[in-house]
């Protein structure tokens, strides 16, 4: 199996970082910082390793498959059998679906607010706006991995540069 290039790997890492930071900025409640700087730092120090270790374990599990390109449900079926595969797939769906609903509502609220307050234009109805946004995101994902990476790179690199500049100000 050929190893991906260093540049490709760096692009993926920065995109994952940027999307995680973007999601954090989108959903970080203002109240989280009201307790002060130190509780926020302590929370970050606790949550960071927990998230890293959980993702590392999940990644290792998915990569343990005998078959190249297997997803989590195929690996569960391979290791634990067909019935466990169906159960884990159902549980995985119930774990991910609410997150998708939350992101759908969050991005609709954010874009609607941006259109009203920064662009000073009336946004379309929430149903139309949410359909357009979700259709656009699905469209980007369906194009190809390379196109998706290029689009997210254009969004993420400026965010990473802003965060780095903010550290030195």
From TrEMBL:
InterPro entries: Amino_acid_transport_2. The chain crosses the membrane at residues 12-30, 36-54, 87-107, 127-144, 151-168. GO terms for cellular component: plasma membrane. Keywords: Cell inner membrane, Cell membrane, Membrane, Transmembrane, Transmembrane helix, Transport. One of its GO terms (biological process) is amino acid transmembrane transport. It is found in: Cell inner membrane. It comes from the Bacteria. This is Serine transporter. It comes from Mannheimia haemolytica (Pasteurella haemolytica).
